[in-house]
Amino acid sequence: MTRYEQRHRWLSLLLDCYALIDLSVWQAVDTASDVLACREGCTACCRHTIPLSTLEALGLRFYVHTLLDAALYQDLRRNISRQGSLCCFNHQGSCTVYALRPIACRRYLVTGTACAEDESPLDSRPHAVLHPSRDVLRRAVALTLPFYRTIGLKPESGEDVLSFYLRQNMPLTSLNERIFAGESY
Ligand code: SF4
After folding, report:
1. Is 181 exposed, middle or buried (0-12, 13-18, 19+ CB in 10 A)?
2. Which of 167, 35, 41, 168 minimizes the C-alpha distance to 98?
3. Pocket lining for ligand 1, CB < 6 angstroms
4. Residue 34 exposure: Cα atoms within 13 Å on the Cβ side
5. Alpha carbon distance 179, 174 (integer Å)
């Protein structure tokens, strides 16, 4: 991604944020009392509502317009209307935007047995859901603040950076059309 980072300063901020979050996830996996249930091909959590920030949406828009081949781009675009609750980026059981998948997808991991398709493990077995450090999450999203300043957004006086991040999240599905809009990036 280095050559793209030179062109897009925001991309470095996003990748640094994701790297810190991935570190906290692996720390949580290391200390978990049970084995990870999440496996390639499981699409259970890709049917949940995925919160997405402006910068994460920009990352996905960059990814689909710059790094996907034309055929896959068209397949994903068609997925928006034909996949129901399944995320349009899930194609044949795989996340096609894995390198730039959102924070929620990165942090949500389940141990023990794999989820049933309509299961919400936070309700059915909350002890099995990993809880990566919220402090690291706070530090990770703080890395993205320079991007928000460039578009005129910043935490309100005294507002915690995590609250700021959560306040400007929207469901991924509501942003699908805008992510795919336009012919090129
Ligand atoms: S972005 Fe990837 S991991 Fe996240 S819900 Fe969509 S397909 Fe699943």
Report:
1. exposed
2. 41
3. 46, 50, 87, 89-90, 95, 97, 101-102, 105
4. 13
5. 10
- Which residues, in sequence order, are bridge partners of residue 95? 90
- Six-digit token pair at 145? 């603040």
Ligand 1: centre distance to CA 86 (Å):
9
Q: Which residue lies with its CA nearest to atom 4 of ligand 1?
A: 105
Distance 131 CA to ligand 1 centre (A): 19
Measured in angstroms, how far is the CA atom of residue 110 from the centroid of ligand 1? 15
pLDDT tens track for 1-33: 888 999 999 999 999 999 999 999 999 999 999
Tokens describing residue 15: 């990748």
Instruction: Reply yes or no on whether the pLDDT at 83 is more than 90.
Output: no
Buried b (16+ CB within 10 A) or exposed e, 90-128: bbeeebbbeebbbbbbbbbbbbbeebeeebebeeeeeeb
Distances (CA, A) of 162 to 45, 109, 144, 158: 23, 20, 11, 12
Please state the separation of Cα 5 from the chain's center in Å: 19
Shortest-distance Cα residue to atom 8 of ligand 1? 46
CA of 49 from ligand 1 middle (Å) equals 10
Nearest CA to ligand 1 atom 2: 95
